[in-house]
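Second attempt. The first submission of Succinate dehydrogenase had a stray character pasted in from the spreadsheet, which I only caught after the job came back as garbage. Lesson logged: always re-copy from the clean sequence file. Corrected sequence (218 aa) follows.
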Amino acid sequence: MMSNSYYFRKIHSLLGVIPVGFFLIEHLLTNYEATKGPEEFLAQINWLNGLPLVLLMEIVGIWLPLLYHAVYGLYVAYQSRNNVSSYGYFRNTMFMLQRVTGVLTFLFIAWHLFETRVQVALGNVAHEELGNTMHEIATNPVIFTLYLVGIVSATFHFTNGLWSFLVSWGITIGPRAQRFSTIITMGLFVLMTVMFIMSLTAFTGTEFSVPVEAHTGK
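This time the job returned cleanly.
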């Protein structure tokens, strides 16, 4: 369908790691500050929003690459032919899970952004109230469960996609290198998932039920 599909896929693969993957890691580290309390979480939020040209960096460095990766990823998922029922090999299963988690991650990120970043942009939620917003989300059992599904999908999609990136870009060549990268990326998957769940659980604390005063230094 696309004569230049090779280049589209290369760009899709690259953007999935740089910068989208970096953004996921940054988001993880920011939210992990919640395990230290509302003040530390707010301090991290204020630091990020105090960066120069933060809106431009978000648009160029996050939203546009994320949009391309998501839209083209959905196209690839639609075009893919999964034959895991006939060929139950490990990598074939991982290929199928990559496509499924890609769709789930797209839906989760869109939902999460609407509840947080979009609400801030519309003026419905202040930056210092994001901890309170996350508290309301995390203390709802149904939404908490859906967030767990979204978190696992996002971390798996990134780490397994990182394995594919290393292969497609010729970094891991040969079965031995690819087996080693499987161990590393799956270890990263477990680590990131645990840290995200710890962050989400931290927001259930009563200390997040009341907004923290913003410390902008102005």
